[in-house]
Amino acid sequence: MKALILTSLALALVLASPGEAKDIIEISAGNSPVDPSPRPDFAHLKRGDSSGDVSLLQKALNDHGERLTVDGIFGRQTARAVKDFQAQNGLESTGEVDSGTWSALSSPAPGLEAAKQDARQAKAQAAEYARSLAGVNSELEKAKAQRDELEAKLDHATSEAETAQSQLKDKQSYVEGMQSELETAKQDAEQAKAQAAEHASMLASINSELEKAKAQRDEIQAKLDQAMLESGSAQSPLKDRQPDLERMQSELETAKQDAEQAKAKFAKLFASVNSELDNAKAQQSELEAAKQDAEQAKAQAAEYASLLANLDASGDPQTSDSPRQPAQTFKPNEQPPTIYVGTPDTPAIATAHIKVGNILLARGDLAEALKSYRDGLAVAEHLAAAEPENPAWQHKTTQIFLKVGDVLMAQGNFAEALSSYRDAVSLADRFATSDPENADWQRNLSLAYNKTGNALAAGGNLTEALKILQDGLAIRERLAQTDSSNTDAQRDLAISQAQVAAVLTEQRDAARALDLLKQARLIIARLLEQSPNDDQLSKDIAVFDANIAKLEQISAPGAEAAQPEQAVR
Hints:
Blueprint (H helix, E strand, L loop, with lengths): L1 H15 L35 H12 L12 H13 L10 H7 L6 H85 L7 H29 L5 H32 L7 H33 L38 H16 L2 H21 L4 H20 L3 H21 L4 H20 L3 H21 L4 H20 L3 H21 L4 H21 L3 H4 L7
């Protein structure tokens, strides 16, 4: 492996300066900084000593694989390294350096000669690569000539495309002429329609029935609109909503029957009137569409009724047997901005899917909640794709991606949750970058970063999790600094600090984790002084205190050896 690394380094130097292969730097393994001969004159060392001999001891331990700071102080880390070295070399693991330990330390570090041999081999390979470089340069020149030839062909193709574009414009003019003729044909059709009015006396009874049908259709549409409005208000209390839903279902059944009767009347009246057949078919199609809309509204109303019927009369959707997510130390109640889709610009079907998903999630039915959110996401993505620069739709789509990810995390499906969170990051980043002063988009991006980091950490990728959580923390630090009076921004900052501390703890960096947790607790304590009756802030303080105590216990002298399993999670 060392030979491969050295060879790669030499090749990188050659390729970095293809015309100067002769300037390759010679690589050598160097000499061990520790005198290989025994040093019986070295002092007997123990923890607490500080001298030049301690510095020599630390360098010698580093040559045997340790990573100590050479400061001349025989501290806890140096004592641990001495014990490990003594154990590895068959010596009594006392942690004190006697003549036997000095003698063992004076031995050459294992693998030194092999490293030298690897360095010589890497040097020879680098020279071979240098000899091959001339041929590579020749191939590069040929590739350049081919590139020039392709660019010439591209210019020619571009010219032909411009010619084709000109021809397309000519054809467009022809199409516009045809459109003019089509308008003339439509005018002729209007004239023919006027002539048909001469048969008004014969069709008087039919017109009367048509008016009745139109009134029935309007009545159906009004009932349908009322059904959709009531469906959008499905979060009202159960006892008040249940009779309304049942009444709405009964009215929709009546509307369906009325539509069927109107359809039968039209079929009978228009059977003998060929000149009005097309008009009758159009009216029948409208009635069929109204019927389908009524059926959809009925189905949605029934679905809401079924969902609401299972809720407790108290309004608390969480039952005793509902599955709950396991408690997590560093996850105070951090909720994304409300996904509210009951606005005029949102289709009712998207509203229904999201609200049904919220109810199912509250009940603990994760599978059905995920299905409902994904159905709503399909509608939102379609609208966002139709208006890619509309921030309202991009915002809604981002929030639904986060909702989907939350359900997948609760199911333990960290890979798919990570994918959904990353989709949210992609959308939020585009708009946050385009409008850096928009605090809502910046907060959305930080939230997407934090949830992505949690998914990475849950999947075991602590390094990438720490990086993206720190990115989210940086955004929240800016937001908190910009508006110091915003309590939500301050609490967001504390939560991000706690999440970063959780990953640092997993990486055994208890000191940095403890520092971040104390900063976070200080923020929450200030907020609690401003709002002493805030239950959530009180719970946050309790969580921080518990974990600060654990980290302080881990960071105490000797805690690593005594309690290695007590890393805060």
